[in-house]
Amino acid sequence: METPTTGTAQARIGIIGGSGTYQLPAATVIDTVEVSTPYGTPSAPVTLTDVAGRRVAFLPRHGGEHSVPPQRINYRANIWALKSLGVEAVLSSSAVGGLRAGYGPDTFAVTDQIIDRTWGRGDTFFDGTVVEGVPAAGVQHLPASEPFCPTLRSHLAAALEENALAFAPTATVVVINGPRFSTKAESGWYAAGGADIISMTQYPEPLLAAELNMGFANLAFITDSDTGHDGSDPVTADAVFARLRNAQPNVLAVLEAAVAAIGPDYRARPLMDPEAVRRIMALPAGLTPVAAR
After folding, report:
1. Distant-in-sequence contacts of 157-163, Cβ < 8 A, 24+ apart
2. Residue among 118, 108, 149 at smallest CA distance from 14
3. Which of 70, 80, 107, 209: CA 20 to 30 A from 7?
4. Vertex 217, ends 49 and 107: CA angle to 5°?
5. Which residues of the chain have pLDDT under 70?
6. Do the Cβ atoms of 207 and 113 come closer than 8 Å?
7. What is the pLDDT of residue 290?
8. DSSP 9-38
9. Angstrom distance (rounded) from CA 214 to CA 211
10. Of the residues 116, 123, 127, 224, which is catalytic?
11. Cα–Cα distance between 98 and 187 in angstroms, integer?
């Protein structure tokens, strides 16, 4: 399918699949959309699907075959692409490590806070650049005290309860650049600084979504205890993917139940100036931004 005209509603709900979630096997596929963005190519084409009677735009964060490492994901292109399809609410899944008691392997968490320890990522749409012939979006400052949408978080929590799955209703995630895992010293430092879980991908997705006045919530599946604070073996990629394979039915069941709970009256928090958002979405694909002057 051709890239739709920006603003043409194709789906109100989006799902960003994390490690292990590269498709929605139980969903009815309606179409596949190649979206061109001002920020380059998204991780993969967007699949329009029917989930629980809702039209959903699905995008695998790491690409269809886990080919994109966390520090190379084009987060801005992914979020812009979903917004261009009319998405207002985004649910994501992610694999994380647990840093303290109460966040053990094979359990879930509904993330509510972020500590950013990444670098070099395009983490804002309002970066002071302009494109010739397009009105500038101007300098904008996002209120980020609550980076995740409380309403969407409540839907994930209710879905976890409905499926009788062990979970923590809140979690502060520290986000590292990757692709390597942490040292013991780093892991201890993050826990001492207030982090409950650790991820390589949960920044800047929620903040980019908020900049475009989209709601965002994350379902975190805890695959390991990072460097082994609880006496377990330190995390390895093989252990992570093995647990993810076993967890996929539960991940998909929770996402489906949360999608079903998002009613037609859902409205994301209007954290940014709507006109500034419209100007970002009016940027044409394939143009090179010119530095502000």
Report:
1. 157/110, 158/257, 158/258, 158/261, 159/253, 159/254, 159/255, 159/256, 159/257, 159/258, 159/261, 160/108, 160/110, 160/219, 160/254, 162/257, 163/250, 163/253, 163/254, 163/257
2. 149
3. 70
4. 100
5. 1-9, 286-293
6. no
7. 43
8. -S-SEEEEE-TT----TTSEEEEEE---BT
9. 7
10. 224
11. 10
Query: Based on the number of CB atoms within 10 Å of its own CB, is 123 exposed (0-12), middle (13-18) or buried (19 or more)?
Result: middle
Decide if 116 is catalytic. Answer: no
Q: Which one of the listed residues 127, 226, 238, 273 is annotated catalytic?
A: 226
CB neighbour list of residue 4: distance below 8 Å, 6 or more residues apart: 10, 33, 35, 84, 85
Q: Which residues on adjacent β-strands are paired with residue 56?
A: 13, 49
Tell me the per-residue pLDDT of 147-164, one tens digit each, with 9 for 90 and over: 999 999 999 999 999 999
Q: Whole-model pTM?
A: 0.92
For the question of residue 226 being annotated catalytic, the response is: yes
| 8-59: pLDDT as tens digits | 568 999 999 878 787 788 788 999 999 999 999 999 999 999 999 999 999 9
> What is the rounded distance in angstroms from the CA atom of residue 143 to the CA atom of residue 207?
9
Of 70, 67, 68, the closest CA to residue 176 belongs to 70
* Coil/strand/helix, residue 280: helix
Size of the chain in residues: 293
